[in-house]
């Protein structure tokens, strides 16, 4: 059934001009705000907790503007299945690529980190021709085998290398012919709250994935935050910001704090473009959190002896 839907409906739809696909997303948006309010309770709760000073009208306005953006994301995701490199280059540009160029000349591997903000799928597809580094993506397979294969095929068609999350250690332990840049989206709810880094994010005590920081220290990788801003409908610009060239100079938690704070600033500035429908705060706070933090820090400093201790 999935194969039929893909070949008969979804892929042929992606071949249409994006402007035409947007007409469908306009209709879908009307359904979201009137008939099928997707995850309305989750969205409203997330907004209320993140912006406690918002009035009911402001919450409603943000929910509607998120639905508008969400509908466009679906349209752009469909178009991403067949979009050509020339069109993708025209719709997605980098304002300061020289930052990654410098790291490439230094032969430094890079972790490109951000969150599910604006259109991350287009960057996944375009990363390998936007930057000199070999593009790498870390993924967890979709439950549907057919869609997992097709989505990864489409994501990798311009040269992105996609590796399974369970193969990360073996992949990064290998030597590579050219420097690599690995895309990481670190704003999902972690699978295990006790292995996460706990901090305040959007006015809430939040567990944050610690993988980016661990990879940076374990494999001596630079960390760069990327901010994707919306120029106009269907057009985006990426700005890069260096967090660290040398992870060994960073204390426990500093990398995670910095990239999460940068994401928070982006969300607060223009909240419509973050995925509010995600159950981001579903992990309960451990009762022994302060003890857990001390244990995490001690284990970290013991494992990465090159890291400074504070």
How is this structure best described in words?
The protein has 310 residues and is an alpha/beta fold. The protein has helices at 2-14, 18-34, 40-50, 56-79, 85-91, 98-105, 120-130, 145-155, 168-173, 211-218, 254-269, 289-303, and strands at residues 92-94, 110-114, 134-139, 161-164, 180-185, 197-201, 204-208, 222-232, 235-244. It has one domain. The protein is built from 12 helices and 9 strands. The strands form 2 sheets. A 7-stranded mixed sheet has the order 1-9-8-2-5-3-4, sandwiched between helices. It has a two-stranded antiparallel ribbon with strand order 6-7. Helix 2 (18-34) packs antiparallel against helix 4 and helix 3 packs across helix 4 (56-79). The longest helix is centred in the first third of the chain and has 24 residues, at 56-79. The mean pLDDT is 95.
Outline the fold blueprint.
Blueprint: H1 2-14, H2 18-34, H3 40-50, H4 56-79, H5 85-91, E1 92-94, H6 98-105, E2 110-114, H7 120-130, E3 134-139, H8 145-155, E4 161-164, H9 168-173, E5 180-185, E6 197-201, E7 204-208, H10 211-218, E8 222-232, E9 235-244, H11 254-269, H12 289-303
Parallel strand pairs: 1-9, 2-5, 2-8, 3-4, 3-5
Antiparallel strand pairs: 6-7, 8-9
Helix pairs in contact: 2-4, 3-4
Throw out a few tags for this protein.
310 residues, seven-stranded mixed sheet, 12 helices, 18% strand
Shape: globular
Q: What topology, given as strand order, has the largest sheet?
A: 1-9-8-2-5-3-4
Please compute the radius of gyration using only Cα atoms: 20 Å
Let me know the largest β-sheet.
7 strands, mixed
SSE order, as H and E? HHHHHEHEHEHEHEEEHEEHH
Structural class: alpha/beta
**Which band does the percent of strand residues land in?**
15-25%
Low-confidence runs of at least 5 consecutive residues: none
Question: How many independent structural domains?
Answer: 1
Number of helices: 12
What integer is the average pLDDT?
95
User: Termini separation (Å)?
Assistant: 56 Å
Helix content: 40-55%
Overall number of strands: 9
């Amino acid at each position: 059934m999935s194969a039929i839907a893909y070949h008969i409906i979804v892929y042929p739809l992606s071949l249409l001009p994006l402007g035409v696909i947007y007409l469908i997303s306009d209709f879908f948006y009307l359904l979201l705000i009137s008939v099928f309010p997707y995850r309305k309770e989750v969205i409203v709760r997330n907004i209320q907790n993140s912006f406690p000073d918002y009035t009911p009208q402001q919450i409603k306005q943000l929910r509607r503007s998120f639905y508008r953006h969400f509908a466009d994301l679906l349209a752009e995701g469909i178009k991403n299945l067949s979009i050509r490199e020339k069109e993708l280059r025209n719709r997605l540009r980098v304002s300061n690529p020289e930052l990654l160029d410098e790291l490439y000349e230094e032969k430094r591997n890079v972790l490109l980190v951000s969150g599910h903000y604006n259109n991350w799928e287009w960057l996944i597809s375009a990363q390998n021709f936007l930057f000199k580094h070999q593009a790498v993506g870390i993924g967890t397979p979709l439950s549907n085998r057919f869609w997992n294969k097709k989505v990864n095929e489409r994501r990798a068609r311009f040269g992105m290398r996609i590796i399974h999350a369970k193969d990360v250690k073996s992949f990064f332990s290998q030597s590579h012919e050219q420097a690599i840049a690995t895309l990481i989206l670190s704003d999902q709810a972690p699978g295990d709250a006790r292995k996460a880094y706990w901090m305040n994010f959007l006015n809430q005590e939040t567990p944050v994935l610690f993988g980016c920081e661990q990879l940076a220290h374990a494999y001596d990788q630079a960390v760069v935050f990327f901010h994707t801003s919306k120029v106009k409908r269907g057009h985006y610009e990426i700005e890069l910001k260096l967090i660290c060239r040398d992870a060994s100079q960073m204390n426990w938690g500093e990398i995670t704090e910095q990239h999460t704070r940068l994401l928070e600033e982006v969300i607060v500035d223009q909240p419509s473009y973050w995925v509010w429908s995600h159950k981001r705060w579903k992990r309960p706070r451990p009762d022994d959190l302060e003890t857990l933090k001390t244990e995490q820090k001690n284990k970290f400093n013991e494992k990465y002896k090159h890291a400074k201790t504070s």
